[in-house]
Amino acid sequence: MPAASVSLTDWSFDPSIYAGVAFVCALYAIAHRRGWLSSSDDLRPWGLTPRSRVLMFAIGVLVCFVALESPIDYIGDNYLNAIHMVQHMLLMVVAPPLVLLGIAGARSPARGWMRGPWRIWTAITNPWTALCLFTATMWIWHYPPWYDAALYNDTLHAFEHLTLLAAGLVFFWSVVDPIRGEGIRPVPSWTKLVTMSLAGAPCTALAFIFIVAPQPFYSFYVAAPRLWGISALADQQLGGVAMLVLFHLTMFSAITPVFLRMFRGSPEDDERALEPLSALVRALAQPATPALPSPAREEAPGPAAPSRQPGAPLPTLSPQGAAPALSPAATD
User: Fold this and answer.
1) Which domain holds residue 238?
2) Which among 14, 31, 101, 326 could disulfide-bond with 56, CB atoms 3.0 to 4.6 Å apart, if both were Cys?
3) Number of neighbouring beta carbons within 10 Å of residue 80
């Protein structure tokens, strides 16, 4: 099998990547220009300043660019599964939270024609829905037939990268929880902790499968030229280690501030998020007050009925039926 060689100049120079980066940066500039992002935003929940927020966004976009354009892309697409796995983790778990921190504190866009798309986005980024989409995307694209198919087809490979990035943005949306404003209810800290913990189990299982498997799964890398003397099996094992390390380092970096924030006193976001539950608990805790019987109504006395002398005949109705007429004997 022929040996392979790479250099630091092996960049992809894909015009679509440059166009995508320019488009995203233009959208970010428009968000600032239209006031969706401003220097007056309250960034205390994220521990950011307006400058550090822009820096987070820039680093996130740079991570995406490096993952898709640098020798990481060239080596992963041609020689090493381990480097390809590094690329996937950069796109799926490293870049998304950084990009979302770059829009932290943004105002809700749910106005006018954006109301419909915003409802759909809110449903997709529900923490539990996002967890399922994130896990399914990771497992589907690492299933050997799909993984090999993407490596042999450039269009499918580009779609794979887009879906990995999209799944990361959807999942980390509820973790970063970047939007604030009227009608926006923050995600409770305990929900973030649970979803991030649950997301770790499928990824850990997949990584250990790669590490302990007795044979390589991906035929593309079995047939690929060997780089740096690394066998196909060792390459796959290194890929599992890369997935395990990058995923858990990112999750630890996300879980730690959320966990510490729960012990800082009374976080306003959590109080707002739990308002409906608190109202329900207060309502259930109030003892039911028995209803007191209403006092009986006393009717006003009506006019007294005319008395009848003993032996007098009963009154009879007049021909018009309007009033009783007394007989002459009764009037004596």
Assistant:
1) 15-108+122-277
2) 101
3) 25
